[in-house]
Amino acid sequence: MSKHDPVPHAVIALYDHACPLCRTEMHRLKAHDRRGRLHLVDIAAPEFDAAQWGFELEALRNALHVRLPNGEWRIGVPGIAEAYRAVGLGWLTWPLRVPGAGRMAARAYRWIAPNRHRVSRWLGYREAGHEPAPRCDNEHCPTHF
Fold this sequence. Notes:
Strand content: 5-15%
Mean pLDDT: 83
Distance between the termini: 28 Å
Order of helices and strands: EHEHEEHHH
Strand order of the largest sheet: 2-1-3-4
Helix content: 25-40%
Number of helices: 5
């Protein structure tokens, strides 16, 4: 198993763990991954090397890159759809098949992706390391990503 194939037959998502929205959404998807078909690779990790994946880091920062088991890449909205399919939630992507909706989603994504940290703040997501301590009652603490 190589760095390029960390999990055989898995869909590999190169995502920005430093982005609160990205981190939360990818971890939500991973929580549904009962068959281990989605492998997450953090492009913000100090040891990450974009060149080993054949991309410039800036390109990876501007859009989610998802590699299919056959080696093909899906970038942006199509990559998001593939990640959903990998964990069995592909049915949630049906709106993208409505005529014109996929193009509108892609247009919105092209603005959201490079502004993801700002969008995260607007939506109330917290930066990594700035999550408040969970409120626990009766020694039961909620789990959040």
